[in-house]
Specification:
Number of domains: 1
Distance between the termini: 39 Å
Order of helices and strands: EEHHEEEEEEEEEEEEE
Helix content: under 10%
Largest sheet: 9 strands, antiparallel
Strand content: over 45%
Amino acid sequence: MGKGISLGLDYWNVEVKDHIGTITGDAILANPNDLTLYNQFISRFHRTPLGTTLYVDQPLENLGELKTAGIDVDFKARTGTSWGRFGLSFTGTYMNKYELQQGKDFPFVVFLGNSFNGGNAYPKWTHVAMIDWDMGPWSAAIEQTYTDGWTEAFTGGGTHEIPSVSRINLSGKYTGFKGFSIKLGVRNVMGDLPPYTDVSSNGSHAAGFANAVSDPRGRFYYTVLTYSFK
């Protein structure tokens, strides 16, 4: 493209055969509206005489095939002005397929845009956009991160929508000292918390937020001091 501008588009399509893994208790119970998996593996639940679950067998086994596909976008632009150099960058991923078998010769199940696979979420779209500026020893950047929402199954039955998440991060840096630089920043400027999720996420056994795609931290400030020995 033009001087100072680059654009990358990458399409990926991955098929994994005979992938080895485990069917967790979370995955078996993740979608209360579909008891197919539970009925298949009910013997793996070990309970007390009162019916309380003690543990669930989770052996390594052949889980059949996994199919996933999507597009990665990478855009960068930079220009110089009398007010300094400005840059714009954007990276994003659009996933249009995520389906897998939960056992050899099992039917394929679509997990794109939901968290029915043991609480693990597979949002369709995520991106990071940033505008940066530098002039002499000074530089600054503003960054936006975004994760698409998804559908979740309530532990007690039914489904609901987890909203998308967008956050703003700011930073500034000064490198005018010999061999020394200082960077100040604030992440999650608006102090937004991740949306509440009703099921445990990524094998954590703790409901509250999807730890694989969300950040539970509110607004926080940071400082980075760097000294280079020469």
